[in-house]
Each structure stands twice: as structure tokens, then as C-alpha cells.
Design brief:
Blueprint (H helix, E strand, L loop, with lengths): L8 E5 L4 H12 L3 E6 L9 E5 L5 H15 L4 E4 L14 H26 L5 E6 L12 H21 L4 E8 L5 H7 L5 H11 L8 H12 L10 E4 L11
Parallel strand pairs: 1-2, 1-4, 2-3, 4-5, 5-6, 6-7
Helix pairs in contact: 1-7, 2-3, 3-4
This protein binds nicotinamide-adenine-dinucleotide.
Length: 249
């Protein structure tokens, strides 16, 4: 029996950790050939092909996408997952931090997509999935810069979906709530009381617990799959109910 992603090549940025790693392994398990583009692609699972790349640098992205094409012969799916956190109000992050985070979280996705589009246009099942966040939809405390970056990712997703629908390239987003990954662990260390902050993050989810990376990976895989061939320009929330439920505690 053929698997869902048989014959398809997927690129996952930031695929060496957290949500990206879970996504890369899910796609590989379902038959895809998977290229991981990451700052640190060493020591990856044998099912994954690692490529060093910095999404904040155009020359690095162009070289990595060219290397994927040369080695694997095609690119059908791009998962724009690489992203970094930022904590604080507008009074806390300086201009350099704004430029750094927007360059990775927003321009990075545009850069990788632009480099991959010539390959995607040749595919019968082309799909891009951008990792957004419920921070794009809700006014989360202490996330001014991060929320702004993810709001831009949502708008970018809709604009790209429009621009490339005629090319046969679908573009969708997944908006996780708080997911238990190294990204969140590092962010917690920035708080005076990381244990209390972790409990608050669990409690913020209507389900009472953080989302797992595998739950997000399943949603990304759905939007990347030929089975969602009529779905483009959407954002799927995988957020434990944070965005829309108002549960009495
Ligand atoms: P993570 O920190 O566990 O992993 C991020 C990966 O991206 C790492 O492997 C890192 O090396 C790589 N990376 C970082 N900067 C890079 C760059 N410039 N070039 C190439 N690779 C780079 O993060 P995660 O929690 O798995 O988050 C992944 C994505 O999901 C991010 O876009 C994040 O904003 C989004 N997200 C995360 C959460 C959460 O709660 N964890 C919630 C919503 C959205």
C-alpha cells in the first residue's frame, strides 16, 4: 500500500527541534523524503536529510534550497517553521531586537518560499505551511513583538495563497497555542518564577495542558498533504481552545 506522502519531497525549516522535528518525523513516517534546514542540523534521525541554513540570510537560504534540489531532485512541500521567541512589551525590546525577530520569523518565511517556488511550481502537489501562533489572534501579555511577527505571518499566508493559487501552490498556516518544546523552556527561564509561569501556561489552555509537538505536526501534515487539495488560505488552530473558548474555571 502506498503511503500518503510517497514520492514527495518536503523541506522543514527549523526541523532539528520541537514542532519542526516532530513535523519532519511525521512526514518521513508517512512516506515523504524530508530535508531539514536548520542552524544546527547535526545529529538528526537517519530518516532525515540535514542541511545547514540560516533563514535570516538570503545567500544561506538560496544555497540550502539549491542543495536540496540538487540532492533530492524536487521540492513539493515547504514547512516554514523556523522561528524565535520574544518576551516583553513595546518598552522592553529595542530596535535591534525588533529587526532580528522580524527578520527570522517573517522575512525568513518569505525568503525560503521565494527560493523554493521555482521547484514548487513543477510539483503536482505543491503546498506551503507556515507556523503562525494564537499570539496573532489574541492580545497575549508580554508578547508585543512576537505577536506582531505572527500577525504578519498570518497576513503573509493569505497574500501568498492568493498570489500562488494559479501556480497550483497551496499556502496555509497552523496556529498553535502553547506547545511544550525547547522554545517554551527557554522562554520560561526569562521569568522570575518559571514554575509559576509554566502552571499559568497550562491553565491558560481551555484543555488545562500545553499542546504536544506531535499534535501540531499532525495538523501541518494534513495541510501539506494531497488529501487537503482544496484547502488554501486558511489557518488551523491547534491551541487547546485558547483562541475561541471561554471556559469557566
Ligand atoms: P524550537 O526552539 O524548539 O525549535 C526551533 C528550531 O528553529 C531550532 O531547531 C532552531 O535551531 C531553528 N532555528 C532558529 N533560528 C533559525 C534560523 N535563523 N535559521 C534556521 N533555523 C533556525 O521552537 P518550537 O517551539 O518548535 O517552535 C517552532 C515554530 O512554532 C516557531 O515558528 C514558533 O514561533 C512556532 N510556535 C511555537 C509555539 C510554542 O509554544 N512552542 C507556539 C506557537 C507557535
Amino acid at each position: 500500500m502506498s503511503a500518503e506522502f510517497d514520492g514527495l519531497v518536503a523541506v522543514v525549516t527549523g526541523g532539528a527541534s520541537g514542532i519542526g522535528l516532530a513535523t519532519a518525523l511525521t512526514l518521513a513516517d508517512r512516506g515523504a523524503t524530508v530535508a531539514v534546514l536548520d542552524l544546527n542540523p547535526e545529529g538528526l534521525d537517519a530518516r532525515l536529510h540535514g542541511f545547514g541554513a540560516d533563514v535570516s540570510d538570503r545567500a544561506s537560504v538560496d544555497a540550502a534550497i539549491a542543495a536540496v534540489g540538487e540532492k533530492l531532485g524536487a521540492i513539493d512541500i515547504v514547512v516554514n517553521n523556523a522561528g524565535i521567541s520574544a518576551v516583553g512589551t513595546v518598552e522592553d525590546n529595542d530596535d535591534a531586537e525588533w529587526a532580528r525577530v522580524l527578520n527570522i520569523n517573517v522575512t525568513g518565511m518569505a525568503r525560503v518560499s521565494a527560493a523554493a517556488l521555482p521547484w514548487l511550481r513543477k510539483s503536482q502537489h505543491a503546498a506551503i505551511v507556515n507556523l503562525c501562533s494564537i499570539a496573532a489572534l489574541n492580545g497575549l501579555p508580554q508578547r508585543a513583538l512576537y505577536g506582531a511577527s505572527k500577525g504578519a505571518v498570518l497576513a503573509l499566508t493569505y497574500a501568498m495563497a492568493t498570489d500562488h493559487v494559479a501556480d497550483g501552490v497551496r499556502v496555509n498556516a497552523v496556529s498553535p497555542g502553547t506547545v511544550s518544546t525547547p522554545f517554551v523552556e527557554r522562554m520560561l527561564q526569562g521569568f522570575d518564577d518559571p514554575v509559576a509561569e509554566r502552571a499559568a501556561l497550562d491553565a491558560r489552555q481551555a484543555t488545562g495542558r500545553m499542546v504536544t509537538p506531535e499534535e501540531v505536526a499532525g495538523a501541518v501534515a494534513y495541510l501539506a498533504s494531497p488529501t487537503s487539495g482544496s484547502t488554501t488560505g486558511t489557518a488551523l488552530e491547534v491551541d487547546g481552545g485558547v483562541a475561541h473558548l471561554r471556559v469557566r474555571k
